[in-house]
Write a structure and sequence with these properties.
The structure is a single chain. By secondary structure, this protein is an alpha+beta fold. Strands 1, 2, 3, 4, 5, 6, 7 and 8 form an 8-stranded antiparallel sheet that branches. Strand 3 and strand 4 form a beta hairpin. It starts with 5 loop residues before the first helix and ends with a strand. The model has no long low-confidence stretch (mean pLDDT 94).
């Protein structure tokens, strides 16, 4: 596991949205913005209750991860002044957090970052799965400037 250094951890904590990339068995890429939280070991997101066309557990990103448990998450800074560009790219295997105590602990992390989650019933790991991305490879890049 690659893990975080202090600069990467600060960057992840300072940002609100990442872009998750998954691919199913057919290899077709799927990229979607996600709310996330990180601890010392991994990055997590939950299939939440924001308005969707299908139940959270049936989302394409989750279906893809069941077929191909590898993902990438990019969190970035864009600015028209390109000397301010930066990103963190986390790649690695994923897993669904099924153990109730771990699921609850990760929801606490997410609810601290996103108060909107406190009004959502996310406590059922089957209905609203939490996904863990293990950082097998972490790249941090900042424009020289």
């Amino acid at each position: 596991m690659a893990g975080w250094n202090a600069e990467v951890r600060h960057f992840l904590e300072a940002h609100r949205v990442g872009h998750l990339s998954t691919a199913g068995a057919d290899g077709a890429p799927h990229v979607i913005p996600v709310c996330y939280a990180a601890d010392a070991e991994a990055v997590y997101f939950v299939a939440d209750e924001k308005p969707k066309r299908r139940p959270a557990r049936e989302l394409r990103r989750l279906r893809n991860l069941r077929e191909n448990p590898r993902a990438a998450l990019v969190v970035d800074d864009y600015d028209d002044d390109w000397t301010r560009l930066a990103y963190v790219l986390v790649r690695g295997p994923t897993g669904f957090v099924r153990e109730p105590a771990a699921h609850a602990a990760i929801l606490r992390l997410l609810r601290v970052r996103y108060p909107q989650y406190t009004a959502m019933a996310l406590d059922d790991p089957e209905r609203n799965p939490v996904v863990r991305i293990e950082p097998a490879r972490v790249a941090f890049w900042r424009a020289a400037g």
